[in-house]
Design goal:
Keywords: Transferase
Radius of gyration: 21 Å
InterPro entries: Glyco_trans_1 (IPR001296)
Helix content: 25-40%
Order of helices and strands: EHEEHEHEHHEHEEHEHEHEHEHEHHH
CATH topology of the largest domain: Rossmann fold
CATH superfamily of the largest domain: Glycogen Phosphorylase B
GO biological process, one term: lipopolysaccharide biosynthetic process
CATH class of the largest domain: Alpha Beta
Pfam families: Glycos_transf_1
CATH architecture of the largest domain: 3-Layer(aba) Sandwich
Number of domains: 2
Largest sheet: 7 strands, parallel
Distance between the termini: 15 Å
Oligomer: single chain
GO molecular function, one term: glycosyltransferase activity
Number of strands: 13
């Protein structure tokens, strides 16, 4: 049986979205390939408990675990880059020692330097290399504001290096139409042979059950997930501070680099209808997502084509309408607007967004639930695990 190597920092039993996705892909691919996984043994998110009985790995999959680092994702940026470099090199060297010519290799784009090292392995070993593009480097680093304007020369050098590395792949798998456009522009100067395919994230329709919230006199808008630098969350808090609607509650669940700053901003502006809570395990998704009436998804304009929030699809599975704030050309905007499963606003439409939120009332709860029902049906027929894994089996 032909060998498939999956190389990732994160894999089972981690419950991050990357680990969950790759474990499911590995399980599906075991029917077609002799699957071998190279990963780290560190713990990424200590706040999450792994007690999901539906999340496991098939025993026939050979897992090689190398020593990892217990990284706090909110640590000093230079320290994080050093750790990413070290992990990328170790993972790549482990693959280099074991992989044979014409073996198939699948990686994701984290840690950041893995792509660069695997491109060298590709040139030396002659592997068939597929890249699942979750992050677009170095554009996403600049989008976070971590690369200063004074580093323009460094950015140009990094961009050329990464663009060329992406172009060495036999296949790039992107997760949105906006990302496909970005990737075609990136590799266009270097390769005409690299194939680009779109495979969306899937919705966990089997494990997430739609629930109607208990709210009757309030509308709860829930933001669940990473509170990082690319979601525009401080701007969102500032917008919330201008809303005058006693029927709205804004709930933020999760962790991230900006959570403390968000809480401080809420306190300083004396906003009374904003609540914060911690992270939650994957098997709590039905309960957490089911507690809201509208789910919030935000993405800064600078992130156009650089990311597609994976939580969007589980929100659909939960049967909740989406309030999306971001670029009008993004994948999630198109999914929400084309299928009438929520509301979309650009960051420049601040006044229109405030007016919308001020006019939201419990009299619209039935309309919101109808939108949620459409979202659930869309998840079942277009984005279920079986549908999306079928695309991976066809493409890899």
């Amino acid at each position: 049986m032909e060998k498939l190597w999956i190389v990732s920092e994160l894999f089972y039993p981690e419950e991050t979205s990357t680990s969950y996705l790759l474990t499911k892909i590995a399980n599906a691919m075991s029917n077609k390939y002799d699957v071998n996984v190279i990963c780290c043994n560190g713990k990424y998110d200590k706040e999450k408990e792994n007690n999901n009985k539906d999340f496991n790995v098939i025993s026939s999959i050979n897992i090689i675990r190398i020593k990892g680092s217990k990284i706090n994702k909110n640590s000093n940026y230079i320290f994080l880059l050093y750790k990413a470099l070290k992990i990328s090199l170790n993972l790549s060297y482990c693959l280099f020692k074991r992989v044979a010519r014409h073996d198939k290799v699948l990686i994701v784009t984290t840690p950041v330097f893995l792509l660069l090292f695997i491109s060298v392995v590709k040139k030396i070993k002659g592997i068939y290399w597929s890249v699942l593009v979750y992050d677009v480097f170095p554009e996403n680093i600049r989008a976070t504001g971590k690369m200063k304007n004074s580093s323009r020369l460094l950015y140009k050098l990094l961009k050329k290096l990464f663009d060329k590395s992406y172009s060495y792949a036999d296949k790039l798998i992107v997760i949105g139409r906006d990302m496909e456009k970005v990737m075609r522009n990136k590799i266009g100067h270097f390769s005409v042979n690299t194939e680009i395919s779109i495979i969306e994230n899937w919705a966990e329709v089997n494990s997430i059950t739609p629930r109607i919230s208990d709210n009757k006199d309030k509308i709860t808008l829930l933001y669940a997930g990473n509170m990082g630098r690319v979601q525009g969350l401080l701007d969102l808090i500032n917008i919330i501070s201008l809303i005058r609607n006693d029927e709205l509650i804004f709930s933020f669940r999760g962790t991230g680099a900006l959570k403390s700053a968000m809480m401080d901003l809420v306190k300083s502006k004396k906003i009374r209808n904003v609540l914060f809570d911690g992270g939650y395990s994957r098997n709590k998704q039905s309960e957490i997502l089911g507690s809201c009436d509208i789910a919030l998804i935000t993405l800064a304009d600078e992130m156009y084509g650089l990311a597609v929030p994976s939580k969007s699809y589980n929100i659909m599975a939960a049967g909740k309408p989406i309030l999306y704030i971001g670029n009008s050309g993004s994948e999630i905007w198109k999914v929400v607007s084309d299928n009438k499963i929520g509301f979309c606003f650009q960051w420049t439409e601040k006044e229109r967004l405030i007016e919308f939120l001020n006019n939201l009332s419990t009299s619209q709860l039935e309309t919101l639930r109808e939108m949620g029902n459409r979202a659930r049906k869309l998840a079942e027929y277009s984005y279920s695990e079986s549908v999306i894994l079928g695309k991976y089996l066809d493409i890899i």
